Amino acid sequence: MKNLSLFLVAISLQLFINQATAQDESAKRKSHFNIENSVAIYGYDPVSYFDNKPLEGKKTWKYAHQGITYQFANQANMDKFKVNPAKYEPAYGGWCAYAMGAKGEKVEIDPQTYKITNGRLFLFYNKFFSNTLKDWNKDEAKLFKKAEENWKKIY
Q: I need a labelling partner for 105 at 20 to 30 A (CA). Which of 7, 8, 54, 76 fits?
């Protein structure tokens, strides 16, 4: 009976630790992701980018993955995301890929300015006569490498 009690205490403790760890990871992600009004990508559907047609998501279809909430244009896209969130989440927490590569900074994006490379979604700033996607394309290999390094330092 004593062994059973110890076993139950150990399981309870492990469950508590697992929950605390998950909450810490969610909080960390929220602090580093580009979120507005509690939603990533300004409410755009992350799956729709892979169909070459970024669509605004609807509040009807939203799903939270590890603390980050996404909206979807339809049920089918939400279902695709649920199966493989890592495939659809934007690089660098949804911040401008160019700014992450050039300066290691978190800069807002235009959700209509994007590029998919090697199956990853990259988003870019595009306002006030500055389209950073054009700058990214001029030296993508170098900027990508630097962005990866900078994001590891931040996240």
A: 54
Sign of CA dihedral 12, 86, 153, 92: negative
DSSP helix/strand/coil, 17: helix
In angstroms, the CA 63 to CA 81 distance is: 9
What number is the average pLDDT over the span 42-51?
97
Domains of the chain, by residue range, sit at 32-89, 90-155
Q: How far apart are the first and last CA of the chain?
A: 46
**pLDDT single digits (tens) 80-89:** 999 999 999 9
Beta carbons within 8 Å of 60's beta carbon, 6+ residues apart: none
Give the C-alpha separation, 20 to 146, whole Å. Answer: 33
CA distances for 154 relative to 82, 114, 129, angstroms: 26, 22, 28
Tens digit of each residue's pLDDT (9 = 90 or more) over 52-85? 999 999 999 999 999 999 999 999 999 999 999 9
Q: What is the DSSP string of 112-141?
A: EEEEEETTEEEEE-EETTEEHHHHHHHTHH
